[in-house]
Amino acid sequence: MLAAMWQFIKRYPMTYLIILLSIIADYILLVIPTRVTQAIIDAMADHSLTGQSLALFIGIFLVVSVAQYTSAYLWMSRLFSKSAFYIKEVKLNLYQKIISMRIQFFEKFRSGDMMTRFTSDVRGIEDFMGYGLMGFLLSAGTYFIIIPIMLSISWKVTLLALIPSSLILLPLVILTRRQEEAVTQQRDAVASLSNEVLEVIEGIRVTRAYGNKQESSQRFQAKTRDLASKAIRIMYYQAAFGRLSITIMSLTAALVIGVGGLEMAAGHLTLGQVIALQLYSVSLAEPLWSLTDLIVVYQNAKVSHGKIQELLEASDDLASQGTQRLSDLEELSLADYSFRYQGASEDSLRHIHLRLKKGQTLGIVGKTGSGKTTLVRQFLCQYPIGQGEFLVNNRPISDFNRHDVEKLIGYVPQEHLLFSRTVRENILLGNPSASQKQVDVAVAIAAFSQDLERMSEGYDTLIGEKGVAISGGQKQRISIARAMIKEPELLILDDALSAVDARTERIIIENIQTLRAGKTNIITTHRLSAVEHADWIVVLDQGRIVEEGRAEDLMALGGWYAEQAWRQRLNEEVSEEEVMA
User: Residue 138: its pLDDT value, please?
Assistant: First the structure.
């Protein structure tokens, strides 16, 4: 942590040099009032204080006070502004890391833990770069400036006064080690609580539906108590050190006054010098008192920096991307391709052979858990490439720049993630520079025009966090419009029509057929009517292709596809008869 911060400091040598010189000036100025106080007391003791000299002393006090304020403002304003700038860089690095990673990266960190790294951990580093560094510089400045001055007055009193402070070193080491462990445990408890809160918020409907409010509340209370107990443990250590430092301060004051009094009686010191030594010893006590806070701030920052570095250094386990540029998708092919998720005991895709040419539509069907989503994810470059051949335009996909591949793909996942923005803003995420006409076309393709007319604010309607204010079918169609406005070379619909009725599904499929002529499409679905028009259909079972061909070929085969098709048609006919009745 300190090495990383030192690298930042070296980038701004003039700023931190000004801070250092300002602190030195601040402490030199701090010494002057004590010197003046010493002079006044000595003058009073030998009855040599005059009105003119007293006015001079008061003038010095005023000038020094203004100078102290100026120097303190100079270095503190620069120190905390650079602290804010450092934190800005940390946050930017974290954000850039997050948006550049693929799915496998996010499987390594829970959402609450990641949010803790963005909030509490960043704040921990910010506290050290500002308040912590200020405390360290003040403490160091106090000792390096004050002790030599005390030695110049009386080395004997000074050394005796430092004995109590030296006795605190061993307890300090012991408390520091235990406190560091407590800080780490508290930070993990914060992350665990954050995970709990996020899960409750995201699953509140399920929690209410199943009446699990009491159980959820008890679990939350248990985590809160755990966090509180760990925070209290840290406070115990702080309190123990705080009381110890007060005792040290009292012993130091007693030694200075006692030994100083003996030295004054022996004629080695004046009353003003004894008072000055006492004032200086009080100045030494202040950083000792604040040392307990400084230690906590440092330990928090150390733990936080470690957590942030862990995230920044984590990988999504993808191989380095290629350098070849890609502007068009002429052909996609998989040959004897198998894929296994990290940590899984068996392959999720097994010996897949598939070829898809530009302008074709591929339908992927199969039972739940057969590997449909896993197969389409291979085209998104979100996971490491599996075993076998995966070619794009007859070249390994690893040869191409991943960003180029992503730009050519429009993807509508099963989970329709919408943002707490307007309908227009959610659609424009697919193409921020799109015109209003393009937005209208995308909405028409997704069969969302009529729904939009019924919304109170039209395109400017806020849909709530994750689309909470709209229905599942509306979420799907906004997601489809977002993908369509991109006008991608390859459109992937991963069970993206499950929440719409059969009539709306037919309209969307017909729109895609008409407006995406000459472009490639992949559709996974449980409703076979969505892929009847496809140029090629594959049926997956346990990660293998067990049937493939055109719709009429699969119907003639009499296998799983034919059985499901007849069953779904029968259900549709029964539903139509019930509606008519």
Answer: 76
Query: In percent, how much of the chain has pLDDT > 70?
Result: 89
Is the CB of residue 112 less than 8 Å from the CB of residue 197? Answer: yes
Burial class (CB in 10 A: 0-12, 13-18, 19+), 502: middle
Q: Residue 65's pLDDT is what?
A: 86
Taking each helix axis as running N to C, give the angle between helix 133-153 and helix 13-45, from 0 to 180 degrees, rounded to the nearest 10: 40
Q: Are strands 395-396 and 387-392 parallel, antiparallel or unpaired?
A: antiparallel
* CA nearest to 331, candidates 259, 408, 383: 408
Give every CB contact of residue 103 below 8 A, 6+ residues apart in sequence: 316, 377, 382, 383
Q: How far apart are the first and last CA of the chain?
A: 74
Specify the pTM: 0.70
DSSP per residue over 269-285, as a string? S-HHHHHHHHHHHHHHH
Cα gap 439→446, rounded to integer Å:
11
3-state secondary structure 15-46: HHHHHHHHHHHHHHHHHHHHHHHHHHHHHHHC
Top pLDDT among 415 and 265 is at: 265
Q: How many CB atoms lie within 10 A of CB 251?
A: 15
Whole-angstrom distance, CA of residue 245 vs CA of residue 247: 5
- Beta strand 490-494 with 409-412 is parallel
Per residue in 149-187, pLDDT tens? 888 888 888 888 888 777 776 676 677 677 767 777 777
